[in-house]
Automatic annotation (TrEMBL), chains A, B:
It holds the Pfam family HxlR. The keyword DNA-binding applies. Keywords: DNA-binding, Transcription, Transcription regulation. InterPro entries: HTH_HxlR (IPR002577), WH-like_DNA-bd_sf (IPR036388), WH_DNA-bd_sf (IPR036390). This is MarR family transcriptional regulator. GO terms for molecular function: DNA binding. Residues 16-114 form the HTH hxlR-type domain.
Length: 124, 124
DNA sequence: CGGAATCCTATTCGATACTG
DNA sequence: CAGTATCGAATAGGATTCCG
């Protein structure tokens, strides 16, 4: 057993990096948008059709949040009709790297996880 | 610009590994609990005091979910008073690796993110 | 085309009280 | 000690309508 003194204490507040990262990308759509923009810059409605099921409202809102956190750049081209393009910032391109590790792990263990869930539910 | 044909389409449903992983650990407490258990197995009330701010209800519920997904094992020792210990499963120990990558990235860029947020808020 | 504004629902989460 | 049960507040997110 681990020595009691080695046990860390975790604070769930704004200064906690764990809390911060989960608060930023732990919502329903952020990661999907980040991954979509890995393929290169894209327009609002193109993103909307590529991210199946997202509402206009949530796409706008999530893009604003990602822009605010510094992961996405927004560029307005004052044409008629207006064109708006979104692209990853340097920070955006960086954060997707560890995210890819996570997703590739998840893809690799997808079946095992579904199995664990089924096993658990078949009990009790 | 990226070729249009290279652009992937993302589906936010149960078969999407991205969605799955975020649905599992994207809540308020899961990652903190997983990281707490990295230090070794621990008891319910010990976890409760180490994860500052978590309520009894959410600790129970999140532990049950993590157990269901196969990340945590729960062992009851029928002593008086009862002792219940939680520990990471093999899968639990594995998923924290990519999570650590993410958190360490977040810690490293913590200031940059706060700055981006401040910059964004000072505009408009 | 790319939003903003409004309304409404479902889910999440915390507080509190009780229990084997 | 380690929960369960119940309630209520806050938040997230979807649907719809309108706009420059």
């Amino acid at each position: 057993m681990a020595d009691k003194n080695e046990r860390r204490v975790f604070h769930n507040n704004e200064d906690c990096p764990i809390r911060n990262v989960i608060a930023q990308i732990g919502d329903k759509w952020s990661m999907l948008i980040l991954f979509a923009l890995v393929d290169g810059e894209d327009r609002f409605n193109s993103l909307k059709s590529r991210i199946v099921g997202i509402s206009q409202r949530m796409l706008t809102q999530t893009l604003r949040d990602l822009e605010r956190e510094g992961y996405v750049n927004r560029t307005v081209f004052p044409e008629v009709p207006v064109r708006v393009e979104y692209e990853l910032t340097e920070m955006g391109r960086e954060i997707v790297k560890p995210l890819y590790q996570l997703v590739s792990w998840a893809e690799h263990h997808h079946e095992k996880i579904k199995q664990a869930r089924a096993d658990y539910d078949s009990m009790a």
